[in-house]
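Collaborator request log, item 7. Partner lab (contact: R.S.) asked for a structural prediction of AB hydrolase-1 domain-containing protein to inform their binding assays.
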Amino acid sequence: IILFSHANGYPPRVYRDLLTRLTREYRVLGVEHRPLWQDDPAQLDSWQRFAEDVAELLDELGEPVHGLGHSMGGSTLLLTHKLRPQAFLSMALMEPVLLPSVWQFGLRQIGKFFPSKVPPIQRALNRVDRWPSQQNVYDHFRPKAVFKGFSDQGLWDLVEHSTTDHIDEGVTLRFTKEWEARCYALVHNVWPRLGALDVPLLGFRGGKSNTLAQREWLRWQRACPRGRYHELEGAGHLLPLECPTEISERYFEWQASLNP
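Returned to partner:
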């Protein structure tokens, strides 16, 4: 079983292409974090709550899993591993949130008291989040640089699985911009968890990432020297949505090397 943990703002079904490819050899379960089912973002005080939710799910599942996480979802799995270390057979992390320590502290403090001063939070709160139809969403997203690496079908997966009918008319985001901003404001320091990992590790970075810097990428490898690492040239922070074929192939190769 692969247990997949999604990024901030991206529901699990958005990753349909990658996860479908992985079902060739695995049963894949996607976790929906609190922003997709809890109403009030102010109730969230830490990413640790996400980890506790995943731990409860693992208890219900009753068998160990292969963890797979993207961005905030990868960081969540690192936090979950501390709670349920025996529940994981392996861990594959795609661009987990590993910021410079000083930045991380500053982001938490400024985000807590002056959220409008933090660029990611500001961008989230200013985001367009309502359209007449899904076609309008697609037309809005297609020219954006952040989605340049998406195939047309990949972008449609994003549109179809990240929007829902608005209470009045048209469509809106399932993962609200208020929730997205809240998650940015509570970015969690998971550096201490890397050294505690005792399962096989696969790490990915996008060569054009604006989130996982080269310095932190190398620091990650020093923290977990027995892991296997791949940097995908031309990809950005959204690499599982840009390069699903390459990631799935790398994943299968890695698992095969663990069980020759």
